[in-house]
Amino acid sequence: MSEGYGQILDREKYHKIISGMSNYRIDTFIRQAEAKEGDNKGIILAFVRGLHLSSLLTYAIRQLLDGSDLTANWGHILDENNEFCSRECDIIIHSKNIPLRQWDGDGAGGHIMDFRFIPYSAAKVVISCKSFLTTSAIEEDYCKDMLKYVERIWLFAECCGPKSDEKIEERAKEIGYENFWYLYKWNKAKNELTQTVEVWDNFVAEILKLRG
């Protein structure tokens, strides 16, 4: 990606997302609350934070694809016969001009849920979003199942260990994921965060390639 105002503006998205996610991992109060074994009352559960991450990424992807014939949504992919559907997809990048099938609110007071059912022919890329990712936590079965519905599957983590990114990427690609990205590296023992904006730059570049 070339330097300039375009890169600066795209990096704004990165800094907004990382600031919206990382405090919930490094904050002392939250770390102490989550460390209480067998008691998850009063804390934000990991799967909710995961929804937050995928939502923030979806909004960023929509902006990057604005003006093209592609967009991004949360949902399922329907098979070629509209008979069965895939596993849940955190983010599906797909063509815009498709039949609208969705689960949603009634429109009064705004959307509560916006979950789409995307035709097989319209799906381009699925992005699986993870929290703190290790090599052992990469979902092999998910990738294999999803390859029946879409050719390209990407993996995006909120964070990974300070020295684990290359091993995760290698393992992910062995399984069938096309790409792997993350927002930052986190040393859990020292509670140290390392931003990796260059990884975001690469992610943005791949999204922009989809525009054609």
Strand order of the largest sheet: 3-4-1-2-5-6-7-8
Residue-averaged pLDDT: 90
Order of helices and strands: HHHEEEEEHEHEEH
Helices, by number, come to 6
Low-pLDDT residue intervals, each spanning 5 or more residues: none
The percentage of residues in β strands lies in 25-35%
Give an overview of the whole structure.
The chain is α/β, with parallel strands linked by helices and 212 residues long. It has one domain (5-209). It is built from six helices and eight strands. The protein has helices at residues 5-26, 28-34, 46-65, 140-146, 165-175, 197-209; strands at 70-77, 89-95, 102-104, 114-118, 123-133, 152-160, 179-187, 192-195. An eight-stranded mixed beta sheet has the order 3-4-1-2-5-6-7-8, with helices on both faces. A hairpin with a 4-residue loop joins strand 7 (179-187) and strand 8. The radius of gyration is 18 Å and the shape is globular. It starts with a helix and ends with a helix. The relative contact order is 0.15. The mean pLDDT is 90.
List the helices and strands and how they pair.
Elements: H1 5-26, H2 28-34, H3 46-65, E1 70-77, E2 89-95, E3 102-104, E4 114-118, E5 123-133, H4 140-146, E6 152-160, H5 165-175, E7 179-187, E8 192-195, H6 197-209
Parallel strand pairs: 1-4, 5-6, 6-7
Antiparallel strand pairs: 1-2, 2-5, 3-4, 7-8
